[in-house]
Design a protein that fits this description.
Length: about 160
């Protein structure tokens, strides 16, 4: 995935900047336990994460809240964008979180200016839960609005 992951149009919205192949490999090795890839014709065209998290709770309910939600995220090779693959991949990440991990809630976040990610979240049935004014520092040096989407497992089924 390095040939497309390093492209400026991909790096515009990713959380991790990998300036070299070695940096990218190091990041990949550190995050393998939460990573999922999408293949097309034997080539990685999508990468995503499913990160299980504890739900917020009162102190005496922490044990019951442990691992009850997940955050998903994804990035797609620009060469395959616009064909519905991002939507299918994001839906698959959500479904693995709900059906495979058994979480009760799935969340995803993006910069408000990342219209493609917002559309994907809306297409798979996630609802906008919050827009946060200038809460995200972009590598451009600008403070951008962030958006948070979520979906309950009961809404997926």
């Amino acid at each position: 995935m390095w040939p497309w992951y390093r492209l400026p149009e991909v790096q515009e919205w990713t959380t991790t900047l990998s300036p070299t192949l070695a940096d990218h490999q190091e990041w990949w090795d550190r995050t393998l336990d939460t990573c999922v890839v999408g293949l097309q014709d034997g080539r990685i065209v999508a990468a995503g994460k499913i990160e299980r998290q504890d739900a917020w709770s009162q102190a005496d309910m922490r044990e019951q809240a442990a691992g009850q939600q997940a955050e998903i995220g994804w990035v797609l090779d620009p060469a395959v964008q616009g064909r519905g693959l991002g939507t299918a991949f994001a839906a698959a990440l959500r479904d693995v979180a709900v059906d495979g991990l058994g979480v009760r809630r799935v969340e995803a976040s993006c910069f408000a200016e990342n219209l493609a990610s917002r559309r994907v979240m809306e297409k798979i049935g996630m609802r906008l839960e919050g827009t946060f004014r200038e809460e995200s520092l972009h590598r451009s040096g600008r403070w951008l609005d962030g958006m948070s989407y979520a979906q309950l497992a009961s809404e997926v089924r």
